[in-house]
Specification:
The complex is a heterodimer of chains A (126) and B (132). Chain A has 126 residues and is an all-alpha fold. Helix content of chain A is 79%, strand content 0%. With 132 residues, chain B is mostly helical. Chain B is elongated and about 60 Å long. Classes of the chains: A mainly alpha (126), B mainly alpha (132). Chains A and B meet through helix 2, helix 3, helix 4 and helix 5 of A and helix 2, helix 3, helix 4 and helix 5 of B.
Chain lengths: 126, 132
């Protein structure tokens, strides 16, 4: 006999109320990170030794802007999920754990927002 | 009913020091360490992008730092951590499908990860130095 409600069973989110979302999104962003990071490295290598005007022109190209946006969103999402697992493994004091998880979200969001702002500014012509 | 203090006294499951150190264990923790390093290394990515969007003067300053010997050491380490974590991640994705758990396969993949990441990092830097 189960004490779980029929609605709870249908939702399938378990006692943590989030189901396998964390695990699944870590995999989804991991898969996305592979081509996006390769693309980012190719852009970086192509810009070695370039002056600012050339860098700004290359990073401002619409295709590169779109790929860079996908890259920054995917890596910051992935790193937030990963760091949360590390925190939950090593920080056992409940208060510190919550503080670290919140700080993790703030840090990841700050990197994402800074990156998105810079990419868009270059895209719209810095 | 046991009190919380008696729970604190319970024996813990066998920990790291009782196991023989192996390549696969080392690779497991290195995957996590490179992940944490990349987490903080993302500051460099954001810094460089913001610098590029900030104009010529500030970009020259940041590029000058990243191009210095100290900056290059950081970037070399960053490159290795990135490639190592990426290949290690692919290993995990293979395991997620239920494949590759045979001991010889696990050992083989750990070696391939180490050799592959180091080789690709050096190759990428050779390309980097040759295109400039």
């Amino acid at each position: 006999m189960s004490l779980r409600t029929p609605l709870g069973k249908v939702r399938g989110l378990g006692s943590a109320k989030s189901g396998t979302e964390h695990w699944w999104m870590q995999r989804v962003t991991a898969i996305a990170n592979i081509p996006l990071t390769i693309g980012f490295i190719i852009v970086l290598v192509s810009l070695i030794g370039a002056d600012h005007a050339a860098v700004a022109a290359r990073l401002g190209h619409p295709v590169i802007v779109i790929l860079q946006l996908a890259f920054i969103v995917s890596i910051t999402w992935h790193m937030r999920l990963g760091m949360q697992v590390v925190i939950e493994d090593y920080v056992h004091h409940e208060g510190w754990k919550i503080a670290c998880v919140v700080a993790n979200t703030f840090f990841s969001a700050a990197i994402a927002i800074a990156g998105i702002f810079a990419i868009l500014k270059l895209g719209f012509g810095a | 009913m046991s009190s919380s203090s008696s729970q604190d006294q319970r024996p813990l499951s066998p920990h790291l020091q009782v196991y023989k150190p192996m390549l696969t264990t080392a690779m497991s923790i290195v995957h996590r360490i490179t992940g944490v390093a990349l987490y903080f290394g993302s500051l460099l990515v954001a810094w460089w992008l913001v610098a590029a969007a900030s104009g010529s003067d500030y970009f020259s300053l940041v590029n000058g730092f990243l191009g210095s010997w100290f900056g290059r050491i950081i970037l070399f380490g960053y490159t290795w951590a990135l490639i190592h974590h990426a290949i290690g991640g692919v290993r995990h994705l293979i395991w997620d499908t239920g494949r590759g758990f045979e001991l010889d396969t696990v050992e083989w993949m750990a070696r391939a990860n180490l050799i592959g990441s180091t080789g690709l990092t050096v190759l990428l830097w050779i390309i980097g130095y040759s295109v400039r």
